[in-house]
Amino acid sequence: MNAHANGNLLEVENLVKHFPIKSGILIDREVGRVRAVDDVSFNVGQGETLGLVGESGCGKSTLCRTLLRLIEPTSGSMVFDGQELTDLGRGGLRAMRREMQMIFQDPYASLNPRKRVGQIVGDPLEQHNIASGEERKRRVQELLERVGLNPEHYNRYPHEFSGGQRQRIGIARALALNPKLIVADEPVSALDVSIQAQIINLLSDLQSEFGLTYIFVAHDLGVVRHVSDRIAVMYLGKIVEIGPAEEVYTNPIHPYTLSLLSAIPIPDPRANAQRKPVTLEGDVPSPANPPAACRFHTRCPYATEICSEEEPPLIDHGGGHWAACHHPLNREAPQDVAAVVGGARE
Amino acid sequence: MSAGGNLLEVEDLRVHFDTDDGVVRAVDGLSYSVDPGQTLGIVGESGSGKSVANMTILGLTRAENAEITGRIRFDGEDLLELDDEGLQRVRGNDIAMIFQDPLTSLHPFYKVGKQMTEAVQAHQDSSDAEARKRCIELLQLVGIPDAERRFGEYPHEFSGGMRQRAMIAMALTNDPKLLIADEPTTALDVTIQAQILRLIERLQSELGMAVIMITHDLGVIAEVADDVLVMYGGRAVEAGSLDEIFYDPQHPYTWGLLGSLTRTDRPRSADRLSQIAGQPPSLIAPPQGCHFRPRCPHEFHKCPQTPGLEARSGSRTHLDRCWLAAEQKRELRVGPEGEIGLAERQEPVATPTAES
Questions:
Q1: Distance between CA atoms of residues B210 and B194, nearest Å
Q2: Residue spans of beta strands (DSSP E) within chain B
Q3: How far is B206 from A286, CA to CA, in rounded Å?
Q4: Burial of residue A119, with CB atoms counted within 10 A of its CB: 0-12 exposed, 13-18 middle, 19 or more buried
Q5: How many Cβ atoms sit within 10 Å of the Cβ of residue B314?
């Protein structure tokens, strides 16, 4: 299918990434599999921001890395800009990486401490034979200025910058090649609140300026709502709900989404006191040994017999809002979501 | 502040560290108090001094290069004057502390039960069997299933949420009067955070202890605190009751914090978040006068003098460090959406909007 025809920049189908668990002294015997990403399908439209949320261990980071083929997928298909990513060779992959870049969570670990900012941001330009020498310096300084850093800091080392400034360096590096898609894996969660807002505003300015498409991963649902057009909720390697951002937040269908939303403390004491949150008991089960059928049934307050017997398919509930649940909320039995999540609707 | 009845009273606390780069004024003239059974929420960003101040209560910042002055009264005793032995009597006994990262605060080589009984026997004269019984009770109290088996396991066999529960159980071993929780839920997922916050609240009402909740998350504050202290650059910039801080905030920094939040219970509104420009201050060479001055859009000629932490808004319990007049603050803090935020200063210039 031609990706441009339907406006999708990225089409992911039945993507699977299992990590083998090996044991044995001489022969590596596979004794199990961590099902980090298990049969995931979604599309990302041109110029869109897809938010990806879920708790730690749900596979969101693995998914991101698999999309860029930093990790090789076990099976499935990923079509980017009309081209299948899974069967690209080294050369093809290299060319493709110009179009897709990543911003990492930890601005301390993702910049080489021995390199100067000019090298860090300029390296991609050199690697892809786009610019070198004076031209490279000029481009890097432009980029630094664009992300709100002083271009004169070209020769400084990462340790001379604060966390927020380092994240700006990471963004400049991702922008250097003029990519179409940027995968941002928890880009603000290591930053202070006042700095988070700066970085989020910068990312949305850059999106409108360069027509970027984002996949934005975060565990902070407030941040994700602010930046995303659509949201995908992951639980134990599966997408359990995906849909337009406002729909997912105001009319969640999957009980897991509802409980995630209700777990977030609202920075408003009165609104907080009024709501009746659903608290999930227990921890997320291990992805090496996920519960059978619906993976959420062990913690779900609405679970019945069928949930432990049959896996619910991801089905369309109208308006591009998909969910995988036998007991869809707001559909079979309407819930008063506002009472649980907090805040008035409308 | 209110006389008597205070469990903890910190007065003009200063913690300065002499480093190669200069003197770091991590805490610079901080005063607050906690009543028995009350929860004080301390909110601030990294480097605001919130952790250093509370570690100093337990003597955890006593280093060779540290200069600590002021007073920390706990139960009628000045903790700063106690020697190590005296402190040891208080630590883990009347005052307990839990930290952000439960994995690094538990010893990986010792079984959880062993670490817990140690805490019991450090302060109580109890036999191994008695201590064990007490610890298993506590593990059950904090909601760890199968406590007896868990008692004999190592920290790595616990999940993140369980480790934090175990830490809390350990903190409770000697029925503390005050629990200091330093970002106890920051490393946890939201659903687990909700469990832990609920647990702390339940334990507090059952055991009647006071809690100091240190966090950067105003959502957590809104959920658990009775009173709130907002810290910035080593000082308290605002203090008041929960409602005063959230619904009548007086300091521009507090407005900025409230304005830059993303809310999950409200429809997405503005395209841009209101942000606090610039970077937090250096604690070695802080700005003269008000520490927030370089980032504040409402700075005026009085700001190079340090404003005191005083009641300026009409309520005796509501203190702030900002020179602006109260009426002016109420006008200025209204953001473009009619919400509290760090509204841009209205420049009396002819050009309408010159925002980049």
A1: 20
A2: 8-19, 22-34, 39-43, 66-74, 77-78, 95-98, 178-182, 210-215, 227-232, 235-241, 310-311, 319-320
A3: 33
A4: middle
A5: 8
**Whole-number Å distance between alpha carbons of B257 and B238:** 12
CB contact under 8 A, B264 and A245: no
Tens digit of each residue's pLDDT (9 = 90 or more) over A144-161: 999 999 999 999 999 988
Closest CA to A80 of A9, A177, A15, A178: A9
ipTM (interface predicted TM)? 0.81
- A202 to chain B: nearest residue by CA? B272
What's the pTM?
Answer: 0.86
Interchain CB contact of A91 with B (< 8 Å): no
Helices (H), A13-82: 60-67
In angstroms, the CA B187 to CA B209 distance is 24
- Side chain identity at A329, as an amino acid letter? L
Residue B311 β-bridge partners:
B319
B159 contacts in chain A (CB < 8 Å): 283
Predicted confidence (pLDDT) per residue in A250-299, tens digit? 899 999 999 998 888 888 888 888 888 887 887 788 888 889 899 999 99
Rounded to an integer, what distance in angstroms lies between the CA atom of residue B311 and that of residue B330?
A: 15
The residues near B148 (Cβ < 8 Å, ≥ 6 apart) are B136
**Nearest CB to B191: which of A162, A250, A280?**
A280
Q: Do B141 and B207 contact (CB within 8 A), yes or no? A: no
User: Across the interface, do A279 and B191 touch by the CB < 8 Å criterion?
Assistant: yes
Query: Which residue, chain included where needed, has tokens 């480097």?
Result: B47
Local confidence band at B237 (pLDDT 50, 70, 90 cut-offs)? very high
Are A192 and B216 within 8 A, CB to CB?
yes
| Angle between helical axes of A255-263 and B190-207 (0-180°, round to 10) | 50
- Asked if B17 contacts B26 with a C-beta cutoff of 8 angstroms, the reply is yes
Which amino acid would we find at residue A295?
A: R
Structure-token match 């509802």, residue found? A258
Residue B81 burial by Cβ neighbours in a 10 Å radius (0-12, 13-18, 19+):
exposed
Tokens representing B254 are 């507090």
